[in-house]
Specification:
Helix content is 21%, strand content 38%. The chain is built from two helices and eleven strands, in the order ααβββββββββββ. It is rod-shaped and about 85 Å long.
Length: 139
Amino acid sequence: MTSRKSIIITSALLIAAVALSAAAFGGPRNCCMAKKSSGQERAQAARSFEQDGAQTAAVEVTDKGFEPSSLKLKAGAPAKVTITRKTDATCAKEVVIKEYKIERKLPLNEPVTVEFTPHKGEFSFACGMDMIKGKLIVE
């Protein structure tokens, strides 16, 4: 009788340990936990506005990723895009725009401005791991 109770208790503890481990370690890691937004949200690209002779735009890094995720810029006009990381819950701790050879660290809650002169086309910007992405639409 004692060995049967021991087996039941051991089994119950084993099941509890597995359940707790799955809850603690089984979920997705925070490197790419940016919540996917719907296609409708992503379809609306934010337009830049002119300030001090350059087109300017602001982007925030949130738990949803880059917001807005798309920017419309004018080709040939200098651009200043300010990016502020508002969360530590994603891997977007830097921004990379390969086509313009831009790679900048994004300290938490500190605006970082990247300056470049865009040429016509569509280009991506992304976190350093290339997991969280946005788009530059240059017309």
